[in-house]
Amino acid sequence: MKNTHFLVAADETEVQKTFHAAVIAHIDGTRALSFKDFNAQLAEALQFPDYEGTSLEDLDEMLNDLSWIGSKQIIIYISSSAEWLSKEKSRDKILTVIDILDATAEDWKWLDDEEGVEKKELRIVFQESDRIKALLEEQEIPFGEI
């Protein structure tokens, strides 16, 4: 398995076996057809306190504060990735979401312990689909397989 922020897996069972000690936030791609739906599902799955954001900036802010999650390893697992954000009108917005996920995972990797915030390992795992592989390749984002 490559040491990257993004991975693809056949199904959630593989994710659970590989990351058995992690907090796994399951996002159902069939119910996250738009950015708004994805944002709401993610806030619920990660139990964000008092979160009501709807913008890309809100997503970025949300993912950069995971202090209430006790586990050091956090996995965002997106099932049915061929459907995920498929109703989003702006392709650029989809690519921006992927970029935010990538940048945030990278930021957590390099967090300085002196900042008083516990370092987390954030990974994004998609259920395997040709669509998601094409999107990641288009953004030149490396990904591994479980």
Keywords:
single chain, 18% strand, globular, 5 helices, 146 residues, 5 strands, alpha/beta, 5-stranded parallel β-sheet
Descriptive report:
With 146 residues, this protein is α/β, with parallel strands linked by helices. It has helices at 12-18, 35-45, 56-63, 91-109, 130-138; strands spanning 6-9, 23-28, 73-79, 121-127, 143-145. The protein has a 5-stranded parallel beta sheet. Strand 3, helix 4 and strand 4 form a beta-alpha-beta unit. Helix 3 runs parallel beside helix 4 (91-109). The protein is globular, with a radius of gyration of 14 Å.
State the helicity in percent bands.
25-40%
Order of helices and strands: EHEHHEHEHE
- Give the strand content: 15-25%
C-alpha-based Rg, rounded: 14 Å
Give a short account of the largest sheet: 5 strands, parallel
Assign an overall shape.
Answer: globular
Distance between the ends = 6 Å
Q: Order of strands side by side in the largest beta sheet?
A: 2-3-4-1-5
Q: How many strands in all?
A: 5
**What is the number of domains?**
1
- Look at the helices and sheets and give the structural class: alpha/beta
- Unreliable parts: none
Number of helices: 5
Q: What is the typical, i.e. mean, pLDDT? A: 91
